[in-house]
Amino acid sequence: MRGTLDQHLCLTDLLDQDLTSYEYFHSLPREIQQKIIQEDIGSFEEMQDFVAGLR
Questions:
Q1: Cα 37 vs. chain centroid, distance in angstroms?
Q2: Which of 21, 22, 26, 33 would give a disulfide with 44, using CB separation of 3.0 to 4.6 Å?
Q3: How far apart are CA 7 and CA 29, in angstroms?
Q4: pLDDT (tens digit, 9 = 90+) per residue, 1-49?
């Protein structure tokens, strides 16, 4: 069942189903959160890569 957390349909699913992603997302500045929302990131790794590319 672990594989289901690796791929999500949308950012909302990711944040609802994965505590690590939720905590990471909410630790980021609001402007970065907005960019992640616009991209509709679907995995924790994708979110980390995206944020790293912004910095």
A1: 8
A2: 21
A3: 25
A4: 344 455 557 999 999 999 999 999 999 999 999 999 999 999 999 999 9
Tokens 């672990």 belong to residue:
2
* Amino acid of residue 46: E
Question: What is the C-alpha to C-alpha distance for residues 55 and 31, in angstroms, rounded to an integer?
Answer: 12
pLDDT number for residue 7: 58
Tokens of 40: 């509709």
Q: Compute the distance between CA of residue 11 and CA of residue 2 in angstroms, rounded to an integer.
A: 18
Rounded CA gap, 13 and 11, in Å?
5
| pLDDT value, residue 9 | 73
